[in-house]
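CORE FACILITY INTAKE
Project code: CF-77B
Contact: R.S. (postdoc)
Sample description: multi-component assembly, two entities in total
Requested service: structural model of the whole complex
Turnaround: standard
Below are the sequence entries exactly as provided by the requester. Do not edit them.
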Amino acid sequence: MTRTVRISDDALALACGADAVAAAFAAAGCHVERVSSWGMHWLEPLAEIDGQGFGPLSVGDVAPVLDGTSALGIGAIADHPFIARQERLTFARAGKTRPLSLDDYAATAGWAGLFRARELGAEATIAEVTASGLRGRGGAGFPAGIKWTTVAKTVSAQKYIVCNADEGDSATFADRMVMEGDPFLLIEGMAIAAHAVGADTGYVYIRSEYPHAIAKMRAAVDLAAGIIAPFRIEIRVGAGSYVCGEETSLLNSLEGKRGEVRAKPPLPAIEGLFGKPTVVNNVLTLAAVPWIMAQGGAAYAAVGFGRSRGTMPIQIAGNVRHGGLFEAGFGITLGELVMDIGGGTASGRPVMAVQVGGPLGAYHTPADFGLPFDYESFAAADGLIGHAGISVFDDTADMSAQARFAMQFCAIESCGKCTPCRIGSTRGVEVIDRIRARSGRGADAVELLPQMHNARKAPRSLTDDIALLEDLCETMKFGSLCAMGGFTPYPVLSALRHFPDHFGLPAAVPEAAE
Amino acid sequence: MTNETLDRTARAVIDPELARILAAHAAREGALLPILHDIQASFGHVPERLIADIARALNLSRAEVHGVISFYHDFHVEPATLPVIRLCRAESCQARGVDALAAAFAGETRVRIEPIYCLGLCSVGPNAMIGTTLHARLDQARLAALVDTVAVECAA
């Protein structure tokens, strides 16, 4: 009997050598099916044979797996604690279906949400999404139902659905996994949004760093064209600019312009792409919609914590033993995610810091491990959950270097439109360099000119430079046009607050246990 | 030279590959980025000599086209002289030691090791991309092997 072996063709599995392993199974006479990834990244390439998992595999492991002598078995994959503890709504198909199989998609309740939306009509569809409490998963957490209502109520002959798939934050890969693993889910979500607001054209803006996601989405859009018609979707590719993940900058980029941020108002919901009413939603937001439409908004709202309803696909990454995709209801604590589920650091050293929310997210220490994963709780702790990426650092990290990187990244990626971000980031790198060198600085030639009455003539000490950095961060936070400059101070200030000894100041007094 | 003569000169020598690309995107809204991606794929870079024709086809000024090319990291007006390995330098790869890895290859002259900010493989870094092929779990030995392979392929 030919044995069926299921191996992911997700980019991460490919990067870990899944193609060679799949070829070895095929050469051994097995029937190989390429499916989506379960999201247990430390086990990739992971093979599933008769429900049993084996990983991480290399080509040399294929023969032992087939003759039953491999020590890499993990038992039934669905029963693995990492999977069993999750509540997978968006990622219900992960690991189970072939990404580009319309049959697999339809057999697993695919299109049920779209068909129900068509039966209900536009208004009732929006009401269902509003009732679900779904908030934008890109980071800002804006209620999707309200955004859709605004677009629906704005009168225009032309409206657009734009899917923001410019997932540039480090430690995030959930968008990529949806697009590579379950592309029809995203297409269905966009089709429902189009039906709800009366749009006939959709764009998916995917970053160029994701060639596999681009290829899968292009193929999926062609396959699904008949089902979503008259709505049509076009895939557009970014060009290496991080700031294009900001919605107005993304719209400019889609229009073929420099990806510069636009001032708001006007809101994109009223004047968006080419000046027309536009729904701009993140991949995860749109991918949550088919479940909501199929099962009802109330069922989705029944999961969650506080004002954050439903589930969040959380991405555990960096120096962590068990990294991968963990979808759970809001409210799970940071400590559970990092220690229980993530298993602590991959290096085996103590966890020193955890960055949540990508390059614009704050660094947290184990003292924050009691924080529930929820928009409001993180905001109250001077942080943000952003796109729910968690990057773990061990105690060898140099936090003033991480703060410098945050400023440097902002300097590289700033669109240049507003001054606090464009200039502030460069000045931030310089100030942090002086702090790291403990050099201080004397007054420069311009400051010493007699005309410069108000310029300081005395040399600046380390504490003066720290005060200057804090002041600069305040200016960027409140003076920048978008989150790029506005949130770069989060990693900088949190690093400074938690690890003053890394900046040459006395060490922080350990916070009392809460 | 007046703009008109410049226009005529340019039209006389319009590159057939560019003409094909422009025609393929004629029906698209906001087609400049898809056009530039195709040019970059065909020519390996966006040659300066094409900019006037691109601008005319889209009813833009040459400055606008140049502004777009220079804004995005993916577009280059000069061809690459060395094969490129794009090594992820973002936070999650930093947490997994990419800075030390990159420092070990700072003197590499056969290939260009460029930074890239996130390949979305953040739990198995350090990661790199060569063309569209991804490589994860890199250490010094594995990156050295990649560098050798790429350098040899390029020399062949």
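Facility notes:
- The longest helix of chain B spans residues 140-155.
- Chain B is about 50% helix and 10% strand.
Invoice: internal transfer
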